[in-house]
Each structure stands twice: as structure tokens, then as C-alpha cells.
């Protein structure tokens, strides 16, 4: 199985200090903390996740530096190929055979929800830093799961709210036909209709679609003020490129990408992407801390000057937070580590003011950006201009509204 082939490449980081390990280390299984990066290495998410996520996890392990206790960390990785059965098989092997202690990343909600079920009540922690399904902190919430960066509720509600405040009340959706897209469209539709807007139609497309012509022509003919792209990765890129060919934005309609990253903008170019609206949890050029991280990331092997996506930043932040909790508890068992992670409230260098709630949702600000025109960009990856900042307490579903059994 191709995912297993990739997974055998282990990067031992050997971060032990010279001093003897203390009693805390005795509770670390196998005398090493193994973090498995599970994502799409060869498909439509390879630029926003892929090997960049692996490098981000390695950076977190290096910065952890043994946690002052000589704790060894090993990063492994595998390709789930956007298939729930492949991802599930890898997770089970990591859990039952290979002694992996935490799984991080996991773009593709169908795969993420399957992993969430497998790891529930096991000793493994699920750091769902790229799984966008809001069910992870709702009806499918697990005591083993922490969810970072975006989710469907935040993406749907917050983006819809920001656009409606700017006059975008009539919508048409172009939606990928699986859990991610359906969840985003449902959340956005709920907000739009409750606040006096209208959804004029929706077109569903398979994952990995190359020809969006019929979907975009239906959206164009609907005369909707806003066309919402409820998809991600290569699907969004293809849709935006073809929309530019049809002159959709020049015709007065605004296009909104619910899950798009700076790597995607780089791939399609500013001439095509200019004027696009999108919601992000992280942008490399926000402040000195994000720029410092991005510069280090861009210099990593194989990155060739690429700036990190929000998902890759989420892998770094969640992996480092997990390792810090391991150091604090002296254990890599989820039953000890996850409750420790949920005590965090403070400043994260990449995501700002951050709290980890009892339902596992990490709360941080979100940002509405507009993609710059080519003449507005002054240097490589200078692609966004900030339109609105959504405070952390407004960006995510309220704690009591998700139906999570962990919330008392």
C-alpha cells in the first residue's frame, strides 16, 4: 500500500540532552515520542500540506529540544491518498504495531473523521490541524482530539458574516461533494438565511474535478452577488482559473474561497486570483513572529523558498503544544496529555491569542483577506491585504452549541 511505503521513512530527531532522564521519562512509551504526520503527499493538497507539513513537524520537534528533560522525538509520515480506508489502515498500524503516539495534520474530513473514531479512548492523541469538519468538536467530539486552524463552522459562518456586512446577500455555491464541502455550505447557508440573505443555487462536483465550466456557468447565470467556492486545494485553483476565463468577477460577481491558502494563490498567480476574498487563520506576513517562522520554513530542505500555509503553520503549532504537554505531564498517553493541553491560554507566536476549550477546539482570531492586484505586490508571496479581523471569541462556534458530550 503506497501510504505504508512513505510511512516507513522515519526521521529520528535524537533530541536527548546529555543528562540522564528523570522519572517522567519512564512513562513515555518506548522511550521515545513518535508523531505521525498523515496527509496528502501526492494529490490535490500536496502544496498546502504534503512534505511541507512534515518539515513543520520536524521544526516543532527541534524547537522543543527535549523539553528540558531529554525527551526523544521521532517524526514519521504517510500518504492517506484522500481515502478513508487507506488513512484508517495507516492509523491502526501506527497504533497497534509502530508505537506512534500522536497523529497530526490530516486534510480531508472523511479521513479525519475516520481517524477520530479509531483513536477515541486509545492512548493516541489526534491533532486535527487540517481536518475542517466541525463535527470533531460537535457530535463526533472525542477526549483524544484537539482541532486547530479552520473548521467548517468557522469557515462557513465567519466568511458569510464578513461578506454580508459588505453587501453580499445573494449567494450561489460551487461545492465539493464530500463532508468538507457539504459542511461548509450548510453552515454558510444557515447563517445567510438567518440574516436576511438568499441562496440562489448550488452545484456539487467530485473531488479532483478538472472541468468547472458547467458549474461556473450556472453560478454566473444565477446573478448571485457572491459565488462561494466550498472546496479546497486543486479544486479551488481550477475553479478560480476557469472563472477568470469567463470574466465572472469582471462581470460584477464576487468570488469567495472558503478554504484557500497562500500556496494556492502562488500557484495560480495574482493576475488570475486578484480580488478573490478568503478567510485565513494564519498569514506568513502578519507580524515579526510569523515572518521569522516563514523564513526558517522557506529555508528547509525541499521547500525552495516557499512560504508556509495556514495548515502547515497549524502542524507546527499543534505539534509543539503537544510536546510541551508531554514534557509537563511526563507521559505521552492521551489521557494525560490532552487534558494538559486544554489548560493552555495565552499567546501562540503564529496564531495570536489562543485558548484550547474543553471540546478540543483551539480558539484564535481569523482574518478576511482580499488577494492583491499584481501591481500591489511588492515582493514574493506578498499576496494579501487585510479586510477584517474576527476576534477569537466570535470566529468559532460557541462552546455550548456543538452538542459535544465533553462539555458539561
Automatic annotation (TrEMBL):
Q: Which Gene3D superfamilies match?
A: 3.40.50.2300
Q: Which UniProt keywords apply?
A: Amino-acid transport, Signal, Transport
Which residue ranges does the record assign to the Leucine-binding protein domain?
33-372
Q: Which residues form the signal peptide?
A: 1-26
Q: Which InterPro entries match?
A: BCAA_transport, Leu-bd, Peripla_BP_I
Q: Which family is it part of?
A: Belongs to the leucine-binding protein family.
User: What is the protein's name according to its record?
Assistant: ABC transporter substrate-binding protein
Q: Where does this protein come from, organism-wise?
A: Bradyrhizobium brasilense
